Amino acid sequence: MNEKIKSDEIELHSDTSRKTRYYLPLFIICFTYPIICFSLYYPILDNPTIFDDSLSVTLKAVQHLSPIFHYFVYDIDANMNVPHRGLALMSHGLVWNLFNNNGFFWFYFFNILLHSLNAMLVSVFLNLFFCLSSLPHNTLESNTFSKDIRFLLPFSGGLLFLIHPVQLNVVAYLAQRTSLLMVFFGLLSLIFFLRFILSGKREWHWYILAFIIYPAALFSKENSVTLVVLYLLLLFMSNQNTAIERQRKFLFIQNIVFILPFLILIGLYVSFMHYETHTELFLSSPMEYFMTQCVVISEYISILFLPLPQWLSIDWFIPVYTSFSQRPVLSGFIFLTTLFFTAIYLISSNKNRVLGFGIIWFFVTLAPDSSFLPLPETKVEYRLYMPIIGFIMVFVVTLWLLINRFAKEHIQATLYKIFMALILLMFLMFTLARIPVFDSEVTLWEDVIKKNPKNSRAYQNRGASLFDQGKYQEALKDFNKCIDFNNLKRYPEKPFINRGETFKRLKRYEESLNDFNKAIEINNKSSVAYFHRANLQKIMGRIPEALEDINKAINISPDNNLYYFERGYIYLAADKPQSALKDLSSSIKLGNSSFLIFMVRGSLYHWMGNCSQAIPDYTKALEINPKNDVTYNNRGTCYLSLHNIVLAKKDFEASCKLGNKDGCNNAQKVKE
Questions:
Q1: Comparing 344-348, 407-411, 453-457, 615-619, which segment has the lowest mean pLDDT?
Q2: What percent of the chain has pLDDT over 90?
Q3: What are the φ and ψ backbone dihedral angles of 322, each rounded to 5 degrees?
Q4: Across-strand partners of 445?
Q5: 615 contacts 634 by C-beta, under 8 angstroms
Q6: DSSP 8-state assignment for residue 259
Q7: Which of 176, 6, 213 is nearest to 85 (CA)?
Q8: Are residues 218 and 270 in contact, defined by beta-carbon separation less than 8 angstroms?
């Protein structure tokens, strides 16, 4: 009896100890990662949008929280073609509609939160993966400190993912919500898949969850099609005991026969839709792009190991390489080929599967952006957000193996902690030094110019930011620099449009006209160039020419609501109120929901004596801008013409309180 009680106590103690070993590390990770992440990245919470962020958070579908299926439609807004990244767009929509009175604080907040969650998932995935992997003698499995190391390595790997300077490009760049969500759902799917393999039982709920979540990664960013390769590789690497071997073979066949074709079809569909949206932007052949990427990927690897702030930039100008005989291409190709086949050897020979899998992970997840599919930007740091996980596997395991080989057993774990702490501290300092770069558009592009003084796009984008701030003379200098260097890869007419618009603001109309003419000469299918020239022609009083230009803009881009708004104004200048009214209504129908469009159409109805239709437009305008004194006065005049004295008096008084003298006079007249 006493022996039974004793054995029960031992079993209970064993269960409690197991649960403690399982839940305590998980608690530590869940508690420390968000604190570190928010402490590190909190300065970006007050940042404005940068680069093309505004396109991600100001779409009609985002601001009005369209029905869910609209987020997965190819073209959901006339102003921007959105590929199949519906979940990322939907996440912006939810934030916009829940917290739209707090600037961009909550957009950045959720970026930081997602990054901390992804770091947790990296740690959990590494933990499970180390359990799965069969490592050779003198590595993790056989080491005296294996239990500690199985927590220490994943924990430090998650921290490395969290604070690495390359990651800042994704966290501080709202448009890269796509990458954050892709990694979140992708890792979650892989973790469930690993959990199923490791169970040794037929716990099919993990298996089902893995493949239910996979499409969420795919519809966050199409690059997650590469997860299919990782699923199969994990099956191949399953432990070699009899039960799991049978299960592994069964699952391998099932994936090939049933699931793999389905996942590949979805992935190809999404990838080709994304390919179609960028076809007109390709600037090199697939082979030229591949040769260029041999150089770029080698540079990616160097900045992952040593991410010095001066080596990092949001926009590097990389020349397109055209021959394997060029030294950077040849050396890069030999290096990457050697690395890839080394990984194959490590996995197939059982020498070190963790290192081999980490290298393969890096190549596979980077392949959609850095292989044969030409993309407009040849080198971009945010493309490393998923591949860096493979680098982390290699980094933490290599550091441990070196310590394990050269240090005495009783100090190995301590040495690992010291070295990793120093490395993390170094990376932390690099990240802190780089965070101020993302404070604004100006600081962002100043950093690019400092590192590459002949980067045309940097001058163009800094000039655009200065233009938005009303600093036209400074903007003009940047646009001149952009045109002087003239190494833009995309939209070569754009700097002439920007400089022409700047000249227009400075009332240097002839110089402005010359630039718009030059832009159209470069690209006679640029609707933007025709639009700006039409606006200039209208200002210069050349109404027939303005009408001709705006018609060309609409013919090129018939769904752009702004063009109809501009043509409506031109028709007003041409004394064609009915045509103007038709175009203003078309602009609203196509999604123009600005204060100005309703104010102008309401004023036009009012001028035409149709107050019954003017009042709803004035009301809508006041919903958008409730502090516009002129609109209150105009609506009050309409109410007065309809003999609604009470509402007229209320509007006149509101106008008067906002400082409108006409409103005060009208309010006084109504009282009398």
A1: 407-411
A2: 49
A3: -120, 0
A4: none
A5: no
A6: I
A7: 176
A8: yes
Distance from C-alpha of 304 to C-alpha of 388, rounded to nearest angstrom = 8
Beta strands (DSSP E) in 172-270 are none
pLDDT exceeds cutoff 80 at 144: no
* Tokens, residue 186: 């992708």
Q: How many angstroms separate the CA atoms of 168 and 420, rounded? A: 20
Rounded to 10 degrees, what is the CA torsion of 598, 604, 610, 616?
A: 10
Specify the higher pLDDT residue, 643 or 181: 181
pLDDT (tens digit per residue) in 112-123: 999 999 999 999
CB 552 within 8 A of CB 526: no
Confirm if 194 and 125 have CB atoms less than 8 A apart.
yes
Dig out the tokens for 651 from the structure.
Answer: 């509007």
The answer to whether the CB of 139 falls within 8 A of the CB of 364 is: no
Tokens 């309180």 found at: 657
Phi, psi for 164 (deg, rounded to 5): -55, 135
| Residue entry with tokens 């190819």 | 74
The residue ranking higher by pLDDT, 67 or 287, is: 287
Distance CA 142, CA 151 (A): 15
Tokens of 420: 């990793």
Q: Are 494 and 488 in contact (CB under 8 A)?
A: yes
Q: Is the pLDDT of residue 61 over 80?
A: no
φ and ψ of 77, to 5 deg: -150, 135
pTM: 0.83
Residue 86 and residue 78 in contact, taking contact as beta carbons nearer than 8 Å: no
Check: CB of residue 196 under 8 Å from CB of residue 207.
Answer: yes
Q: Which segments of 323-411 does DSSP mark as H helices, in order?
A: 327-348, 353-366, 388-406
Mean pLDDT of the chain: 83
Instruction: Provide, rounded to the nearest whole percent, the portion of the chain with pLDDT above 70.
Output: 80
Q: Rounded CA gap, 567 and 582, in Å?
A: 10
Maximal CA-CA distance, the chain = 106
Confidence of residue 141 (pLDDT cuts 50, 70, 90): very low
- In the chain, the amino acid numbered 6 is K
Structure-token pair, residue 157: 């790997």
Q: How far apart are CA 228 and CA 238, in angstroms?
A: 16
User: 490: Cβ–Cβ under 8 A, 6 or more apart, which residues?
Assistant: 281, 283, 376
pLDDT on residue 410? 80
Please state which of the ranges 130-139, 301-310, 437-446, 499-508 shows the lowest mean pLDDT.
130-139
